[in-house]
Design brief:
Layout lengths: L1 E6 L11 H8 L4 E6 L12 E2 L9 E2 L1 H11 L4 E12 L2 H7 L4 E5 L8 H7 L4 E6 L9 H12 L10 H4 L18 E2 L2 E2 L9 H19 L8
Parallel strand pairs: 1-2, 1-6, 5-6, 5-7
Antiparallel strand pairs: 3-4, 8-9
The structure holds adenine (ADE).
Adenine binds next to β5.
């Protein structure tokens, strides 16, 4: 998978060198390029924003540098992802869909967003998805892009060593994950639930499923359709 990121804060993405995604890059499974939006400006101040037409608070990102940057990285087989609190909610199902794509491009906006014509134009060249991480406002798209890249990247075949570990996770089966325990069997007076030491795999599977149901009912009843 090839990932291009356009941002005014390229240094934000230094963390993509470490951990699981860093290894995936080293192994050639994911190829990530970060582009500085200001490299596509032509004025002395490398201006990327301006006041909004129609008035209002904040600044809007001008379309020209975005147009030039996207002309360079967008191809007809790309999916352009625009993180935005006004986008559709990003879910594990969307992460799965995106993990099968050959090319993703992230357009990280700042301030009050990007001139709408950039998204409208890009829609004529490639598929575009405006994605929101949740019902809160971040300062820009960078942190959201990072979250999407991590959620998608770990689903790319070969990135996670044991693919079975992906299947039992929260959200994959529509339920939250069961609680996990490791050694020691007792810690600060708290024992591990005895069933997990029983060696009875059937009973362990049922217990875990009950835990998933109980946790989902308590924390996220909306996932069970009875919020
Ligand atoms: N940019 C600002 N807020 C955001 C959010 N909640 N999700 C995605 N991108 C954003």
């Amino acid at each position: 998978m090839r990932i291009d990121i356009v941002t005014i804060f390229p240094e934000f993405f230094g963390v993509l060198d470490v951990s699981l995604l860093g290894k995936a890059r080293d192994r050639g499974l994911i190829d990530i390029a970060v582009h500085d939006l200001r490299d596509y400006t032509h004025d002395r101040h490398r201006t990327v924003d301006d006041t909004p037409y129609g008035g209002g608070a904040g600044m809007v990102m001008r379309p020209e540098p975005w147009g030039e940057a996207l002309d360079e990285v967008l191809t007809p087989e790309s999916v352009l992802i625009v993180p935005s609190p006004a986008g559709e909610r990003f879910t594990q199902a969307i992460a799965r869909e995106l993990s099968t794509e050959a090319r993703l491009v992230f357009a990280c906006g700042r301030y009050e967003g990007i001139d709408q014509r950039v998204v409208d134009y890009a829609s004529s060249v490639a598929r575009v998805r405006e994605l929101s991480l949740g019902d809160y406002v971040l300062n820009g798209g960078e942190v959201a892009a990072m979250a999407v890249i991590e959620a998608v990247g770990r689903l790319v075949p070969g990135v996670v060593g044991n693919p079975e570990s992906l299947d039992e996770e929260s959200h994959e089966g529509g339920l939250l994950e069961y609680p996990s325990y490791t050694k020691p069997a007792e810690w600060r007076g708290m024992p591990v639930p005895p069933i997990l030491l029983s060696g009875n795999h059937g009973a362990i599977a049922s217990w875990r499923y009950e835990q998933q149901l109980e946790r989902t009912r308590r924390v996220r009843p909306d996932l069970l359709g009875d919020s």
